[in-house]
Specification:
The chain has about 350 residues and is of the alpha/beta class. The protein contains ten helices and 13 strands. It has two domains: about 240 residues, Rossmann fold (3-Layer(aba) Sandwich); about 100 residues, no CATH class. Strands 1, 2, 3, 4, 5, 6, 7, 8, 9, 10, 11, 12 and 13 form a 13-stranded mixed β-sheet that branches. A hairpin with a 5-residue loop joins β8 and β9. The longest helix has 24 residues.
Length: about 350
């Protein structure tokens, strides 16, 4: 199954971010997607479909492009910032890759990633607040409010218009940008780039000025994801990336942009044997037993799926968000003021 998904993922990456002209074949489906998306937004604007007020402020963290942009670290960082400002935040997530039932489910440290999804489990372990998953963010938000939360961070909720929001943050991958600029499935976009005109803030991960068209999206808060430590999956040891400098390792990444993880390791002088898997891929223990004694370094998102006893040479790289400016940005204070007024 992973092999077929990997082949499809490789094909779509060539179409979306490479020079492949296969996108032409997919254009009719993109036009249909655009029509349905426009109709859905029109129904919400006209009131035929109604957005639900959760009863407490809602801050949405999402993106307009499929694949990894860094929205999960942004959601964790934002929840931490809000708690530091006296709020009681809670994170509502769809639980993509999981199999949540009819009722919302709180995610705890030992939740089954096959049920709640890998990203919500990672957020529950790293965030400082409750995490609840359900495809209906309104239901998830209601459960968080019953738990005492006074502000909701809606992870990957930019297109979930049923949940009314007070603040929208769009996360953009500055290195990959918007690919070929076309809508799914001919391109990576869930919504047109002009959608960024209506969000309150763009957070840009990496890249340079040439990859970010300010005439389209305005100003942005830049951030990077930097390694904060390398932890063995047995929970006994913590090292720095410097420990692995000059050594060959197997690098495992089942995320939206595996190449970003491989480049992180290589930039620290590590010789990478790459193993890229589709985003949210279910990794088996047998698939990661390479039989040559080399250390295996994986992303933290992949590590939460490796339950049970693990070999001592299996590690995950934890990353933290660092802003491209000194100190916390001024918009955080404005956001806190807006939420308190609400």
């Amino acid at each position: 199954m992973n092999r077929e998904r990997s082949a499809l993922s490789d094909f779509l990456n060539r179409v979306w971010y490479g020079a492949s002209r296969w996108y032409v074949v997919l254009l009719p489906l993109s036009w249909l997607f655009a029509l349905l998306m426009s109709l859905r937004r029109a129904l919400y604007r006209s009131g035929v479909l109604r957005s639900v007020d959760a009863g407490v402020p809602v801050v949405v963290v999402g993106n307009i492009a499929s694949g990894g942009t860094g929205k999960t670290p942004v959601a964790i960082w934002l929840a931490t910032c809000l708690k530091d400002r006296g709020f009681r935040p809670g994170i509502a997530s769809r639980g993509y890759g999981g199999a949540v039932g009819r009722a919302p489910l709180r995610v705890v440290d030992d939740s089954d990633p096959g049920t709640v999804g890998d990203e919500p489990l990672l957020m529950a372990r790293r965030a400082v607040c409750p995490v609840v998953v359900h495809p209906d963010r309104v239901a998830a938000a209601a459960m968080l409010i019953r738990m005492g939360c006074d502000v909701i961070v809606a992870d990957d909720g930019l297109q979930h218009y049923r949940l009314k929001r007070q603040f929208e943050i769009a996360v953009v991958d500055g290195a990959r940008g918007f690919g070929n600029g076309r809508l799914l499935p001919a391109g990576p976009l869930r919504e047109p780039v002009l959608r960024l005109h209506s969000v309150d803030l763009v957070m840009l991960q990496g890249g340079d000025a040439g990859t970010f068209d300010r005439s389209v999206t305005g100003s942005a808060t830049r951030f990077e994801l930097s390694a904060s430590g390398v932890h063995d999956l047995q929970g006994r040891r913590t090292e720095s990336l410097e420990t692995f400098r000059g050594r060959s390792v197997h690098a495992v990444a089942g995320i939206g942009n595996p190449q970003r993880f491989f480049r992180l390791l290589e930039s620290n002088g590590i010789k990478v044997v790459p193993h890229a898997y589709p985003d949210h891929a279910a990794l088996s223990r047998n698939a990661l037993e390479f039989g040559d004694g080399l250390d295996v370094l994986m992303t933290e998102k992949d590590a939460v799926k490796m339950r049970g006893p693990n070999p001592p040479n299996w590690w995950y790289v934890a990353v933290d968000l660092t802003l491209g400016e000194s100190g916390e940005p001024e918009w955080l204070d404005r956001l806190a003021t807006t939420l308190k007024r609400r």
